[in-house]
Amino acid sequence: MQSQAPIAIVGAGPAGLTLARLLEVAEIPYIVFERDVSATWANEHQSSGTLDLHPTTGQAALVEAGLFPRFQSLARFGVPLTIVDSQGKVHVSYSREGDTEEPEIDRKDLRGLLLSSVPASRILWDHKIQRIERVDNGSVTTHFENQPSRSGFRLVVGADGAWSKIRATVMPSEPQYSGIHFFSSYIKPENPIYPLAALKAGRGNYLAFGTERQIFLYCLGDGSYHVSVGLRLSEKTVPEASILASASALWNTVLQEYFAGWDCDLTDFVRSCDGKFRSWPLYTMAEDAIPSWNHVSGVTLVGDAVHLTVPTGDGVNNAMHDSVDLAKHIISHGINDLESATLAYEEAMRPRAVKTIQKGHWMTHHMFLAAGAEEMLAAMGADGGEA
Ligand SMILES: Cc1cc2nc3c(=O)[nH]c(=O)nc-3n(C[C@H](O)[C@H](O)[C@H](O)COP(=O)(O)OP(=O)(O)OC[C@H]3O[C@@H](n4cnc5c(N)ncnc54)[C@H](O)[C@@H]3O)c2cc1C
Fold this sequence. Notes:
- The protein is of the alpha/beta class and 387 residues long.
- It folds into two domains: 7-77 and 104-175 and 287-366, FAD/NAD(P)-binding domain (3-Layer(bba) Sandwich), CATH 3.50.50; 176-283, D-Amino Acid Oxidase, Chain A, domain 2 (2-Layer Sandwich).
- It contains 13 helices and 18 strands.
- It has helices spanning 14-25, 41-45, 55-64, 68-74, 107-115, 194-201, 241-244, 247-255, 264-271, 304-307, 315-333, 338-368, 373-380; strands at residues 7-10, 30-33, 50-52, 81-85, 90-94, 104-106, 123-124, 129-134, 140-144, 150-153, 155-158, 176-187, 205-210, 213-219, 225-232, 274-284, 299-301, 385-386.
- The strands form four sheets. It has an eight-stranded mixed beta sheet with strand order 16-12-15-14-13-4-5-18, sandwiched between helices. Strands 7-2-1-11-17 form a five-stranded parallel beta sheet, covered by helices on one side.
- β13 and β14 (213-219) form a beta hairpin.
- α1 runs parallel beside α5 (107-115), α3 (55-64) packs across α11 (315-333) and α11 (315-333) runs antiparallel to α12 (338-368).
- The relative contact order is 0.18.
- Bound molecules: flavin-adenine dinucleotide.
- The site of flavin-adenine dinucleotide has 32 residues, from α1, β16, α10 and α11.
- Flavin-adenine dinucleotide (FAD) binds at residues 10-16, 33-36, 51, 128-129, 159-162, 165, 182, 280, 282, 303-305, 311, 313-317, 319.
- Residues 5-170, 297-357 form the FAD-binding domain.
């Protein structure tokens, strides 16, 4: 099938949709291919948490996209933060009242905001890319697992996250397992443990750190809590769907032995979660991945597809920043000089990507694999006590 738009964006995550919105505003034609079968599939089938958007990256991207006022109406400002140890002892408690620096937004709301800002006809759902092929005339063909191929793209942007199918065209590196595995689910307001969660976390984030393991509660926009459990686990330990389907099954078969001796309130939060758990083994790119990136005409990458790390609080911000930069270069060079646009973008992005990956490795050791709250706070240079 011959394509109409010159630019294909693979992936409707924060990076892909930010780029789509910026091209839309600039009236540059594009098409987005997304593997999810519909706009609501992820909301219905996957637990997803909250993201804090930073002023110079994530928020700046929304300003650039003309979406900041709508973001402000969805975002939560001054979200309190409590950090405790495995016994529930409070080490840090920030009220953050009046803090406007790093507002939080539910991941699903950010996606909804970006999706609503581009015409529905620009997003092709249920299009799972298998590979791309560069053809002799300099154009690129996209091949899907479940749809007819499309040809004639002048630029394909890989915004397809951790397991990008576009990445292999420009770099040989594959993500490496970080040693950390997260499981996440929810506590809804009707859950009997909800009042205890509300007492501990309030309208904020409540983070418990033990040795190489964590239990996090994040208050979402609808008042429910997103619960994340992190621990060092072998790469091969991927529980079956039947185990992830219930909190008690996951607790009894995988988690219990790792959280022996923890404060019961903390472990009860995990054992009482509603619904099924999402399994997130955390992967990261190696530090030498970016220097091995060869510029390839007609193909580039944004977001996790290029600088995947463990969660550092920067991931979504960096992803949106990449797309702002790429869009600016495409707009300034024009649709007939996409080669110069991608070269300029990649040159500016490479050093940022290296720093991002380095920070992720630092966080792996000083936060996720630290020997508890005190060691983690000392490494972060964070002071304890009330604020
Ligand atoms: C447990 C966890 C917690 C996190 N917490 C935070 C946080 O608090 N703050 C923060 O800033 N970041 C956080 N991150 C990181 C953040 O989620 C990512 O950095 C960010 O989502 C990257 O955006 P992206 O658009 O590059 O990729 P993604 O968000 O991964 O989006 C990729 C899109 O591409 C689609 N796709 C994938 N493969 C294909 C294919 N073959 N064909 C078509 N479409 C495809 C996917 O369905 C998806 O829609 C966290 C990550 C994890 C794992």
